[in-house]
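Hey, resending since the last one bounced:
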Amino acid sequence: MSALGWRDYERMLDLAGDLIRSRAPEQAWPLVVAELAESLRGNISLLAELDWRAGAGRMVTGVPDLLHRVPMDSLITAHMHVHPLMRLYASGHEQVALTLDQVAGKDWYRSAAFRAGRDAIGITRQLAVPLRAPSGHLRSLIVGRDGSDFGERDQEYARRLQPLLNALDAHLYELGRHQDTLPRERGDPSEFGLTQREVVVLGLLAEGLTAHAIARRLAISPRTVTKHQQNLYRKLRTRDRLATVLVAQRLGLLAVG
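The structure tokens again:
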């Protein structure tokens, strides 16, 4: 039987709605870390990126403001290779949300790394949600608290949310990749009523990807991709993929060539 209640699913839907409506990509992860801190009753919540091979890590964003007043990048870098959860995710054996207590031995709670986290930001318990990352890198959302460990409900909530977060990650990656290729005199998608998702689909259509390939790239269904295509045709007043790409190039919504 699920440990989640209807309010938990309502929170997930509210978060998904906020992310879809947001027109500022840079606000997506701050929304997520704030939601995780509140829903999982964490004292802190952050998104960390680790270059495992280079031994360097950083905090992308986090709450509360305390995290921006302590040397989080240095703290992450100094202890990432001994952190039980990060070591497990780096091994590739597990990529699901877990708590630190599930994988850490007694030695961890006597270690310098544990004391550093406790003394700097006041946390003794952690729950991590790994995200997709290039080979040799780790990306993870981490929620921390002091006192009792995260329970069954907290872990199930994080695991149910994980597919949405991975889909968000794929969307933001493709959106950033698309924006990097735009011409200097770029058009404004909002003038044509295009959503961020439609902009991403437009960029992938221009690369020649099929609906099924786009669906795999963005972790959505082919039917949803087809709906986005239809919206693009309607908003740009075109009838097929080629015409849509050519019109988008002329309007500065896509790179030419």
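The mean pLDDT is 91.

Sorry for the duplicate.
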